[in-house]
Design a protein that fits this description.
It contains seven helices and no strands. With about 160 residues, it is mostly helical. The chain has one domain.
Length: about 160
């Protein structure tokens, strides 16, 4: 296990664990992501673009997750997700949302959110740092490809 993962997993705080477990719920996480997107962006066209980039990140990340076939670090524990580890879809979605706000004053808050989500994945022991690091390029590529398609659509 790398040192970043070991440090994050070694922090034992009940509130942090509770937050991480809440974010682990797909329904809660999806609602939170959509709420943050709706609160941060008033323009409907930009909202559609962000949703499209989130969907693309989810598809790309899922394809990679089942192609790469990396076991989770918690394999064999009493609680561990059933799917593969690389990349972290939670981090990919959070980083994609963050990228949608790159040119806004609120970017720092979205960056903090993405880093917090990523940290909770390490803290719960369901990912290693490489899984989180692998999520960032997926987010950037997803948003960039969506941006290209959006510009061509409007041209």
């Amino acid at each position: 296990m790398d040192s970043i993962t070991a440090i994050a997993a070694g922090i034992h705080n009940p509130l942090l664990t509770m937050a991480g477990m809440a974010l682990d719920s797909s329904a809660i996480y999806a609602i939170l992501i959509l709420a943050l997107m709706l609160l941060g962006e008033a323009r409907n066209e930009k909202r559609k673009k962000i949703v499209a980039s989130l969907a693309l990140a989810l598809v790309l990340g899922t394809v990679l997750k089942y192609t790469m076939d990396h076991d989770r670090p918690c394999l064999g524990e009493t609680w561990c997700p059933d799917d593969n580890s690389f990349p972290s879809l939670h981090a990919a979605i959070a980083f994609t949302l963050m990228t949608g706000f790159l040119n806004k004053k609120s970017y720092a808050a979205y960056l903090a959110f993405a880093l917090f989500v990523s940290f909770t994945r390490l803290n719960l022991g369901v990912h290693v740092f490489l899984d989180i690091a692998g999520a960032l390029p997926i987010a950037l590529i997803s948003y960039y490809l969506t941006d290209i398609i959006w510009r061509e659509k409007d041209a």
